[in-house]
């Protein structure tokens, strides 16, 4: 009899925990719907996929060592220290949508440019301009994207929105690398500089396409007025819960 009671108690506790987990997941999904951060997936898919192959292109096709290849990517990465602070200061003035859409469009242009000119005998100086353009684009988009992820929700959902933004970005990066590798593997290889370039070119095309899709996703972001309405609607249930709780606390006990 006692064992039966214990077994039923354990089952009831498991069911309660499972229900709580489902409720938490649904809350996170609602937060994701309100933040509308799909562009984060494509931003990171394009960025990390290109990063994975650009360093290899400079080594496998151009013949540079690891340190030399890293230094030659500085026109791409160093823009973050210059453009990102400027973009961050412009967010409150012009909004996130033009920075995200324009930044991802610039990244698409840079990646497509590299794909069009890539070859084993390409002079490095020809890579500088597209690297700077792509770097300026991602440096514009990142601060605005992070701002959208936390400004589209109420205060008690900021942590969830931020974690969802990071998770979706990481998932996008994994997807981007996998997609570019799949395209590269169809016609490219590491057998020679030329065979590597053969696969690198369409891989950069995929990176540009992913960034372009992200730019389109950025264009359909709700404006600040629409996000304010969403925040107001999200606050209503929480306000109702607090009022109900206060009423219960203030009601006389029987």
Write the layout of secondary structure elements.
Layout: H1 2-35, H2 38-61, H3 66-72, H4 74-77, H5 79-94, H6 96-117, H7 125-151, H8 158-187, H9 193-219, H10 224-250
CATH architecture: Up-down Bundle
Strand proportion: under 5%
Distance between the termini: 35 Å
| Shape call | globular
> Count the helices. How many?
10
**Cα-atom Rg, whole angstroms?**
24 Å
Strand tally: 0
Helix content: over 70%
In the CATH hierarchy, what is the class? Mainly Alpha
Q: Enumerate the spans where pLDDT stays under 50 for 5 or more consecutive residues.
A: 225-242
Could you describe the largest sheet, including whether it forms a barrel? none
Characterization of this structure:
By secondary structure, the chain is mainly α. 86% of the residues lie in helices and 0% in strands. The protein is built from ten helices and no strands. Helix 5 packs across helix 7.
Summary tags:
254 residues, Growth Hormone, Chain: A
Short description:
The chain has helices spanning 2-35, 38-61, 66-72, 74-77, 79-94, 96-117, 125-151, 158-187, 193-219, 224-250. The chain is an all-alpha fold and 254 residues long. It has a single domain (37-221), classed as MFS general substrate transporter like domains (Growth Hormone, Chain: A, Up-down Bundle), CATH 1.20.1250.20.
């Amino acid at each position: 009899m006692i064992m039966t009671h214990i077994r039923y108690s354990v089952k009831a506790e498991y069911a309660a925990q499972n229900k709580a987990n489902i409720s938490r997941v649904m809350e996170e999904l609602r937060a994701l719907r309100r933040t509308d951060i799909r562009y984060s997936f494509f931003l990171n898919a394009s960025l990390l996929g290109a990063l994975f192959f650009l360093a290899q292109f400079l080594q496998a096709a151009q013949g540079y060592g690891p340190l030399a290849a890293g230094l030659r990517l500085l026109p791409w990465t160093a823009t973050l220290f210059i453009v990102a602070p400027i973009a961050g200061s412009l967010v409150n003035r012009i909004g996130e949508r033009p920075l995200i859409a324009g930044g991802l469009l610039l990244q698409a242009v840079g990646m497509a440019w590299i794909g069009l000119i890539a070859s084993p005998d390409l002079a490095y100086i020809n890579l500088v301009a597209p690297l700077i353009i792509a770097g300026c684009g991602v440096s514009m988009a990142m601060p605005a994207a992070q701002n959208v992820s936390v400004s589209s929700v109420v205060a008690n959902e900021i942590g969830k929105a931020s974690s969802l933004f990071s998770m979706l970005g990481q998932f996008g990066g994994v997807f981007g690398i996998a997609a570019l590798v799949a395209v590269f593997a169809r016609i490219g290889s590491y057998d020679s500089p030329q065979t590597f370039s053969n696969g690198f070119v369409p891989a950069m095309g995929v990176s540009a396409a992913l960034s372009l899709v992200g730019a389109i996703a950025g264009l359909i972001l709700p404006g600040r007025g629409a996000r304010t309405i969403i925040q107001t609607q999200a606050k209503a249930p929480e306000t109702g819960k607090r009022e109900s709780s206060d009423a219960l606390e203030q009601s006389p006990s029987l």
